[in-house]
Structure formats: C-alpha cells, structure tokens
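Researcher: We're teaching a course module on how sequence relates to structure. For the next exercise, students receive a sequence and then see the predicted structure as tokens, so they can try to spot secondary structure elements on their own. Here is the exercise chain.
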Amino acid sequence: RQRYKEEFAAELRRYKELCAHMDGVNERLAQLGKQLDEVPEDSAQYQVLADVGAAPLAPSCPEYQEKKQESKTLRNKLFHIKRMVSDYDKL
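Model: And here is the predicted structure for the students to work with:
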C-alpha cells in the first residue's frame, strides 16, 4: 500500500506538470486567436501570426501530441492506483 501511495505521489507530480504545460499552450493559443481576430485576414501581419505564432503551439505538433498522450496514460495509471489502494483499504 505504501509503495502504491509513493508511486501515486510521484506520478501525480508529473501529471500536474503536464497539465500545467498543456494549459499554458492552450492559453497561448487562445491569445493568438484573439490577436488574429484583431487583424485583417489578408494582411501580412495575419500571415506571420498564423504561420510563426501557431506552429510551435499547434495541437498537431509532435511534442504536443506526446505530452497529451503521456498525460492521458498517467491519468489512467493514477485512477488504477487509487482504485487498488481503495480496494486494499476495503479488505
């Protein structure tokens, strides 16, 4: 039980880091969207913002996809550990 709790705590820290990173990316994408709404679509500034600003943040970016998948995997693992500890406590 103690090992599960320790593993849970370690994995929870990593999960929270990933969530904070993903939240930051989503916030920057929202800010970029607001900036794009303020400039005409046919302007050079719009094109620069769309091409340069969004590229490293895009949900299709491999790094984003890897972190998203790791986050999903950790979430499932945390639920599993929590369920196992709960089952143990019921015995």
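Model: If you want an answer key for the exercise: The chain has three helices and no strands. The radius of gyration is 19 Å.
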